[in-house]
Amino acid sequence: MDAQVRIEQAMDQLSRNLQRAKEDPQAVLEGKFSGTSPSGAVTVWVDSLGRVDHIRIEPDAFSSGGEKFIMDEFMAANSSARRAAENLEFEDTGAGSRTTTTGEAEQYDEVPQSFLESGY
Q: Quick one: where's region Disordered (predicted)?
């Protein structure tokens, strides 16, 4: 890819992000962005700076695969969530509960239950 094309794409993305930030600056400050692994076993929520806020690992994920599987799933979910944060891809559901996957955060009452708290 030509350097000029990459620069133009970056400028377009910056322009879109600036517009979103102007529309809802509180969402940028308090927004949560999620990413889910390809198998759906791991979901990661990050803040607008890409820092991990919390993680949800499906209980059956531990029996489905080993340590490498969980690690790969986490890395994929984390990358997806960070991309969403970089692009300010949030829903219009109110500041502080913005996610890229519809309804995920709402079903966990702000913070997902851990495996031990879930009663499985």
A: 87-120
pTM of the model: 0.65
What CATH number corresponds to the domain at position 78? 3.30.1310.10
Residues in the chain, overall count = 120
Cα gap 43→22, rounded to integer Å: 28
How many structural domains are present in the chain? 1
**Residue 118 maps to a domain:** no
Structure tokens at 80: 């997806």
What is the reported pLDDT for 120?
47
Structure tokens at 20: 């979103």
